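Task: encode each sequence below as structure tokens.

Item 1
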Amino acid sequence: MFMAIGRTSLSLALLAAVLSTIGCDRLTKHVASTTLPEGQVHSYLADTVRLVYVENPGGFLSLGADLPGVWRIGLFTFVTGTILLGTAAAAARLRLRGWPLIGVSLLVAGGASNWIDRVVRGSVVDFLNVGVGPLRTGVFNVADMAIMIGAAVLVLATMSRHED
């Protein structure tokens, strides 16, 4: 009986984390799109953090942004949506637990929030850039952070499992 309660509590906590990740991303994108003029850079912490509003029609680092519209929509809306559903279904079918489940959940939450942008806007809102001097990241958002953290958690969990 305690196992069932534990699993239910874990499932609810995981669902809350996924919904919080999506909600935080949606909120920050809304704030960026309503308060940051397009192309204008706001610099903070000795230019370590920059806020700049960008609409990204492509994928990671704008890859695929130059594809013809129908190909871009197909790839970034339909294919991505199918991959997200497949990933969530695989995690459930494999009965992932612990760190691997957390990693996949962050990947799916971030991907789903960016997918929502693509369906609603046709592009993803990005607004964060970090770096020192000429060494800088591309412009990204909270969903991208969730995806990267989720991928790192999944890789580390997989590596540690193989070391045992």
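Item 2
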Amino acid sequence: MNRIKMKKQEDYKKRYIGVFDSGLGGLTVLEHLYKLMPDENYIYLGDNARVPYGTKSADTIKLYSKQAVEFLKKFPLKFIVIACNTASAIALESVQKVAGDIPVIGMIRPASEAAISISGNKKVGIIATDATIRSGAYKKELLGFNQDIKLREKACPLFVPLVESGFVEHKATELIIEEYLCEMRTVDVLIFACTHYPFLKKQIQSYLGGVQIIDSGENAANKVLKNLKNSNNLSNDKGSEIILFTTDYPNNFIDTAKNFLSFDIGIVEKIRID
């Protein structure tokens, strides 16, 4: 098991972009951030002990999200990324209050803007966790941009545990994709409204054919870059420090991260935040 002894807060001299998710999914966002800003420094927290957030109550999601941010604030942060659509939909305001003066970005607005911009027929599909669909956050955001949008929403609760369990390439995953997404073949744009879903992009794209897929994490990363540029807050150092924390240590965490990420994940530290 990769473990480190955590340094004292004052030993962290750099400024970090803090990223948190309920588990592995936020690594897809971290990958986009790193590709765009390879000289930034990152603190990642995966709350694997309490995954998935998508089946929890709103109060629980807000509590977990605030605890995650309180942990991240132990480090000198320049930005906080909520790399979880469920937390973005339900706990954005709660996170902003805890963050104080630190800028915060969630997944919903950037993905919605991207979908509106490329959807020629204004037929947009949304796949997400139960909690994100129930929140109505994407529907509200998309209709706020364009009242003529025709929406199809689908909760896909089994996708997250399949990813967390390392079943990405499993035959069962193909069958579940077919079961969930048969009605999405009529849309022209599909929003991955969960950051776990890019792990399944190859299989989903194969099933849906020409449907354009919107990765919420990719569009959020673009917004972070724009914000840091506009505020003259990009790192001037060459090379980045990436520190990963998890609240549980699933056996496939490092293997999945190594297979997906384009950089060496180095050391992972298991911590408690409750």
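Check on item 2: Residues 1-6 have pLDDT under 50 and may be disordered. DSSP finds eleven helices and ten strands in the chain.
End of task.
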